[in-house]
Amino acid sequence: MKSSQRDARVREFAAAVGLDLVSPPVPGGAYSPVVSHGDTAYLAGQVAKIGNRILLAGAVGSAVTVAEAKEAAKVCALRLLGALIDAFGSLDLVSKVLRVNVFVQSAPGFDRHSEVADGAWKLLSDVLQCEVGHARTAVGVVSLPRNASVEVDMTVALFQV
């Protein structure tokens, strides 16, 4: 798959959920959505937000189902890809996903964090056409910003320009 097709694909997925990738993510604090150093880009965590609305709030395993959380993880991944497009103009520079961290606001006893994380990875894989080979952490937490159910951050390798 040609890299330029990645941009079209991410925009197609984003449009399907009503997410505007033209406007860059607005940080919720004093940080940058993307910081690059050499051939590596570090992306700040993104929650599943469309406009100013949190798509899914509450603890997974009680207020939120695993299926809903997987969909929220996909939106988080879309926002990460949108941040890359904003920072670099295209997904063309992404050579490999190195690491994905998924934080799941979890009800007591919830232990299906990896299933939620798979929602983000499926989207990333579909858009970037990459194989499994990244490192990943999927953890349960008590709370996330704005009561979001899921937050995802990512580190990617970039092609040298």
Essential attributes:
YjgF/YER057c/UK114, RidA family protein, globular, RutC-like_sf, five-stranded mixed beta sheet, two-stranded antiparallel sheet, alpha+beta, 60s Ribosomal Protein L30, Chain: A, 34% helix, 161 residues
**Low-pLDDT stretches:** none
Helical residues, percent:
25-40%
CATH class: Alpha Beta
The overall average pLDDT, rounded, is: 93
How many structural domains?
1
Question: In CATH terms, what is the architecture?
Answer: 2-Layer Sandwich
| Silhouette | globular
Using the CA coordinates, give the radius of gyration. 15 Å
Beta-strand residue fraction: 25-35%
Give helix and strand order, one letter per element, not per position: HEEEEHEHEE
Secondary structure class reads: alpha+beta
CATH topology annotation:
60s Ribosomal Protein L30, Chain: A
CATH superfamily: RutC-like
Q: How many distinct helices? A: 3
- For the record, give the distance between the C-alpha atoms at the N and C termini, rounded to a whole number: 20 Å
Major pleated sheet: 5 strands, mixed
Strand order of the largest sheet: 1-2-7-5-6
Task: Please count the beta strands (DSSP E, at least 2 residues each).
Answer: 7
Organism: Variovorax rhizosphaerae
Pfam families: Ribonuc_L-PSP
Protein name: RidA family protein
